């Protein structure tokens, strides 16, 4: 049986191992927002190198600090194993271009297929979404929505797209479906893309901002997704001190919670 | 006016700068749980070194990965500035003993007194707590509650202490007051202690666990606390895949949200 070609997400986030502690990669065209690579795309690429260095199959917890915007082109990645354990291995490293660090991340990696699930207690349910075909497919443009939307399949809840036409509903909430294109299977690295792919909650909250740059983003993965579609919901409760958090909850097609994310974002000063 | 002696928290978390990239510290007796230093205490000590290396006054976002337990005694801390900016400086580093890393953290530091607060939107309110004198002061023991409780002033909501006598209320929730002793003022490093000082929510949820070791903890600080008491609330929504999250919300005496925290903790396998 011929090996199938890697999907477009796997190709765009591919890393080359140069040695034990060093990888290289090329940030692809078409995964950017106004010329700069999407944060989730950057994170998935860096995490692919860190995961490789860990020798474990799954990202369990990954935290990234966004330091400089990154345009398409070659980057270097360093990876340092902090602790290699039987259950988890923790790796830290940065993505740099010309000695300028774009992104730094630390991740704990493991094997989610081996995790015990004898005790379960879930307070919450997946967001109620119309079927994907009745949601609004976000199409990429050279401005907003960003070009990356043509490389993923993101369908927003019809109630949450008012901000596009200048009529946000006023709640700091964004809900929708997410999957990779071309039936590319989605693993924990794809989840890292998903948690930063949706429009900011601030747009629906009608906050007077055009952008909310990420300071820090952490994603926790509980299980490998089953099926192609993710049900995603992002909310913000606290806009204060010049910051806002964005909390993501990701469920798979089987209504299982598979990931949580939180990012601290900056409310740019008003001029 | 004579300079006042450093408080017991400042003393216990003091770091000595050896050079640009290296600090030393001594983990103090009495801040442990069953012999191992409390996670928030470890984090505050490491963050004090990283903050010093940043040259900024406040911890804004700090993420820690817990790698090995740490007993009282000397430790080394390395600190690497990833990006020094006008607004924020991001520093990463680890705390080691005998070349074994106990804890690794990455933090973004800044000056919270200068943050714009023109846009505010808060969906939520501080936990409703009886006054501190009507709450339950947790006293340290050599077992549980841990000795650290004698070095802080932690008062739990009377409704949330049932687990101590074997009668948990069944909700994954812990609420209470927190302050440093001897009127020691509390800054963003004290907040890092506070967010890991309360008993696990799992105890009130009546989950069959005696411990829930932390894999990763992130704290976001929105403002410097005003007044001595913090109002704290910790909840868990998702116990699944062998993990649980613990979400903290911290308010100050003026009813301002000043911090959020989230940790991913491990549900030990049942035997």
UniProtKB/TrEMBL annotation, chains A, B:
Transmembrane segments: none annotated. SUPFAM superfamilies: Thioesterase/thiol ester dehydrase-isomerase (SSF54637). Residues 28-110 form the Acyl-CoA thioesterase-like N-terminal HotDog domain. Residues 132-266 form the Acyl-CoA thioesterase-like C-terminal domain. It comes from the Bacteria. Pfam families: 4HBT_3 (PF13622), 4HBT_3C (PF20789). This is Thioesterase family protein.
């Amino acid at each position: 049986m011929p090996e199938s070609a890697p999907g477009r997400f796997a190709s765009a986030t591919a890393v080359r191992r140069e040695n034990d502690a060093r990888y290289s990669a090329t940030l692809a065209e078409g995964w950017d927002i106004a010329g700069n690579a999407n944060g989730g795309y950057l994170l998935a690429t860096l995490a692919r190198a860190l995961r490789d260095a860990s020798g474990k199959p799954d990202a369990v917890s990954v935290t990234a600090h966004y330091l400089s915007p990154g345009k398409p082109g070659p980057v270097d990645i360093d990876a340092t194993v902090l602790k290699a354990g039987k259950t988890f291995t923790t790796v830290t490293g940065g993505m740099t271009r010309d000695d300028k660090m774009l992104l730094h991340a630390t991740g704990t990696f493991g094997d989610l297929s081996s995790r015990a699930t004898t005790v379960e207690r879930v307070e919450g349910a997946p967001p109620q979404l119309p079927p994907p075909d009745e949601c609004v497919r976000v199409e990429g443009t050279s401005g907003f929505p960003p070009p990356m939307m043509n490389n993923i399949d993101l369908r927003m809840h019809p109630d949450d797209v008012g901000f596009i036409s200048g009529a946000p509903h006023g709640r700091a909430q964004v809900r929708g479906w997410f999957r990779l294109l071309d039936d590319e299977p989605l693993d924990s690295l794809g989840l890292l893309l998903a948690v930063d792919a949706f429009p900011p909650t601030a747009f629906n909250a009608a906050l007077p901002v055009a952008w909310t740059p990420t300071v820090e983003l952490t994603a926790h993965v509980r299980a490998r997704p089953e099926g192609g579609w993710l049900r995603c919901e992002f909310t913000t409760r606290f806009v204060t001190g010049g910051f806002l958090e964005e909390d993501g909850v990701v469920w798979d097609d089987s209504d299982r919670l598979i990931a949580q994310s939180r990012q601290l974002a900056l409310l740019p000063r008003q001029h």
